[in-house]
């Protein structure tokens, strides 16, 4: 599992700037859930070969008891509970405040591994101005400038040292015969009901392996001879083993389950339609390249008019999942569950599909003959041959000349033809264009 770093601190100390620096993007939010936009954002970071998740939080007032500040405190406490290492950010130029003392007291009480970071310290990295922060009792003060990138790499290295991470991430061997399935969705959509229905029906739960409080649980089971590994995000744990401070819905657990899976079953609620949370979860799964199946739960609880509204909302809000098979089910009444398994197996098969270079090239040339790409400037793109560049998701690499002028609409045209030829329903398909270089381009033509 990727380590999780949570950024906490009072408002305006530069947490968001540090978040963007660590994720190497101004818009690196991978899960911005409705109702949490003010308080908790999640992004992916990478240093060397080690990937990690960063949580950005709103301003933290541990003792807030009313209004938005109470909700912000609750969201920050959730982030701290989900984190492996807490990065407590203070303002090197603004100095120490009473609120910093309150936050430090809370963090000492929690006992999570914590790094105290003085941000905005450009030009004063060796200055004595930072000595006052030692009053917080959180050890060494790490001076950085998130805006200028000073000290941020060393900060991440220190976080890794606290976790005793290996120099190189371990690569575990996976059984290709086992399909890793994650059931994802927002709270109260029926994930637990669906999972319990499956497991109760099959009675093939060999064991459950709870990790830390934030980890997804892996449950092996079998259906019609096919082995699955269910990566649960629904809090399927024995009572008494749940850390009560953590909400039932853990965003980190959902993101990690998606990344660990081969196939993601996105569960929607027919009574609620498609919400922002659904769209963000779907977007993250697509960004991760996961094969997907859509299931609309509680279909028995809505009338015909509501059903039409739900289908329309899926078409308008999740058009990027048009490749995924969709099913209408009732987990509670065990209706419509059978065909879901077929779609899961099909999606996994498509994600792991092997495509030969001769067939891909023939399909490419046939597509060009049927419809040539538009001319870009003085040149028309020339598509010469294609080969497979990866699996899960499938990647097709197209070689030729002037391919930077190939439009997105033409890529979608190619994608549709490749999908039809190889029956790639249920998986994203990525098409990469590689232009051949002209060896004489830099030479004097005279």
From TrEMBL:
Residues that bind GTP 2: 185-192, 232-236, 297-300
Under the heading Gene3D superfamilies, the entry gives:
3.30.300.20, P-loop containing nucleotide triphosphate hydrolases
Keyword Repeat (UniProt): yes
Looking up CDD domains in the UniProt record yields: EngA1, EngA2
- Keywords for the protein's UniProt record, in alphabetical order: GTP-binding, Nucleotide-binding, Repeat, Ribosome biogenesis
For this UniProt entry, the molecular function terms from Gene Ontology, in alphabetical order, are: GTP binding; ribosome binding
Q: Where is the signal peptide?
A: none
Protein origin, superkingdom: Bacteria
Q: Which Pfam families match?
A: KH_dom-like, MMR_HSR1
- Entry binding sites for GTP 1: 9-16, 56-60, 119-122
Name a single GO biological process: ribosome biogenesis
Domain EngA-type G residues, every copy: 3-167, 179-352
Q: Which InterPro entries match?
A: G_ENGA, GTP-bd, GTPase_Der, KH_dom-like, KH_dom-like_a/b, P-loop_NTPase, Small_GTP-bd
**Which family does this protein fall into?**
Belongs to the TRAFAC class TrmE-Era-EngA-EngB-Septin-like GTPase superfamily. EngA (Der) GTPase family.
What the protein does? Answer: GTPase that plays an essential role in the late steps of ribosome biogenesis.
Tell me the subunit arrangement. Associates with the 50S ribosomal subunit.
Please name the PANTHER family in this protein's record. Answer: GTPASE DER (PTHR43834)
Q: What is this protein called?
A: GTPase Der
Species name: Limnohabitans planktonicus II-D5
Q: Which taxonomic lineage is given here?
A: Bacteria, Pseudomonadati, Pseudomonadota, Betaproteobacteria, Burkholderiales
């Amino acid at each position: 599992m990727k380590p999780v770093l949570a950024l906490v601190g009072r408002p305006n100390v530069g947490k968001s700037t540090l978040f963007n620096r660590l994720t190497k993007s101004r818009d690196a939010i991978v899960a911005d859930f409705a109702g949490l936009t003010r308080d908790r954002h999640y992004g992916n970071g990478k240093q060397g070969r080690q990937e990690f998740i960063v949580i950005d939080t709103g301003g933290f007032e541990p003792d807030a008891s009313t209004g938005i500040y109470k909700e912000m405190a609750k969201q920050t406490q959730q982030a701290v509970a989900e984190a492996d290492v807490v990065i407590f950010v203070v303002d090197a130029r603004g100095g120490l405040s009473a609120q910093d003392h309150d936050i430090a007291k809370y963090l000492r009480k929690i006992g999570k591994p914590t790094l105290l970071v003085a941000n905005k310290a450009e030009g004063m990295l060796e200055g004595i101005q930072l000595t006052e922060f030692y009053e917080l009792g959180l050890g060494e003060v790490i001076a950085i400038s998130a805006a200028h990138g000073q000290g941020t790499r060393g900060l991440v290295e220190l976080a890794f040292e606290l976790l005793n991470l290996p120099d190189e991430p371990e690569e575990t061997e996976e059984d290709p015969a086992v399909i890793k399935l994650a059931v994802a969705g927002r709270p109260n959509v029926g994930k637990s009901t669906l999972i319990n229905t499956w497991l109760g029906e099959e009675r093939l739960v060999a064991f459950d392996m709870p990790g830390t409080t934030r980890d997804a649980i892996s449950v092996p089971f079998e259906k019609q001879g096919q082995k699955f590994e269910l990566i649960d995000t629904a809090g399927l744990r024995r009572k008494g083993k749940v850390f009560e401070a953590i909400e039932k819905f853990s965003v980190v657990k959902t993101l990690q389950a998606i990344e660990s899976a081969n196939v993601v079953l996105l569960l929607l609620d027919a009574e609620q339609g498609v919400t922002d949370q659904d769209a963000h979860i779907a977007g993250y799964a697509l960004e991760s390249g996961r094969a997907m199946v859509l299931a609309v739960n509680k279909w028995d609880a809505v009338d015909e008019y509501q059903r039409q509204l739900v289908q329309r909302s899926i078409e308008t809000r999740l058009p990027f999942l048009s490749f995924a098979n969709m099913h209408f089910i009732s987990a509670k009444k065990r209706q419509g569950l059978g065909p879901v398994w077929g779609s899961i197996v099909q999606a996994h098969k498509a994600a792991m599909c092997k495509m030969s270079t001769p067939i891909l090239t023939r399909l490419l040339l046939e597509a060009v003959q049927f419809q040539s790409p538009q001319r870009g400037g003085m040149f028309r793109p020339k598509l010469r041959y294609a080969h497979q560049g990866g699996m899960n998701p499938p990647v097709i690499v197209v070689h030729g000349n002037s391919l930077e002028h190939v439009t997105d609409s033409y890529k979608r045209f190619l994608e549709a033809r490749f999908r039809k030829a190889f029956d790639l329903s249920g998986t994203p398909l990525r098409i990469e264009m590689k232009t051949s270089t002209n060896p004489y381009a830099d030479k004097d033509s005279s």
